[in-house]
Amino acid sequence: MSYDNIIREYTRAIKSNITIYYCDGEELINYLKDVVVTKQLEECQKPLIKVQKDNRTYFTYYGIPTANELWPFLNALARISNDIVQLDQKEIELAKGIRGNIKLFVTPDCTKCPITAEFLYQLVQINPDVTLEIFDVTEYEYEKEKYRVLSVPKIVFNERTEIPGGFPSTIILKMMIKALEKT
């Protein structure tokens, strides 16, 4: 990886209180295994990384975060392990009203995806009633087709509501709350 020094610096900020389950991605995991508990999954077909703390799954990343997706991923590990959220009070209050599953579709070279990912990683920190799955559509073609991903970032909320991920976080939250009101 060409980001060796930066990843090593991030590992200084990540505490050992999280567990990472993984399939493939040994190059990235090798940097993290001295800092966090890592457990290799046996029966998986494609790469994935699942992040847990205190028996709670914070998110599952389907693929291996690289390029533009690496920084939000490492930021999420640092935030989760240190219990830090960097959202404003309005975002936090709106986030507490969300419940359900969020799927975020990304590609490593997407320039808007990291902003959406940064926000959604923090949303699951605030609200244990939310599950987050991030799909690298360059690896997960089936999901790309199933959810009709034509551009990224794309959010699918509770399997029904499609939200373009390029909106500001408060707009995304309001769209999710509106979708919950319809159910």
UniProtKB/TrEMBL annotation:
Pfam families reported in the protein's UniProt record: Thioredoxin_17, Thioredoxin_3
Residues passing through the membrane, by range: none
Domain Thioredoxin-like fold: 101-176
Family matches, as SUPFAM superfamilies: Thioredoxin-like
Domain spans labelled SSO1120-like N-terminal thioredoxin-like: 3-83
UniProt family annotation: Belongs to the glutaredoxin family.
Name under which the protein is recorded: Conserved protein
Protein species of origin: Sulfolobus acidocaldarius (strain ATCC 33909 / DSM 639 / JCM 8929 / NBRC 15157 / NCIMB 11770)
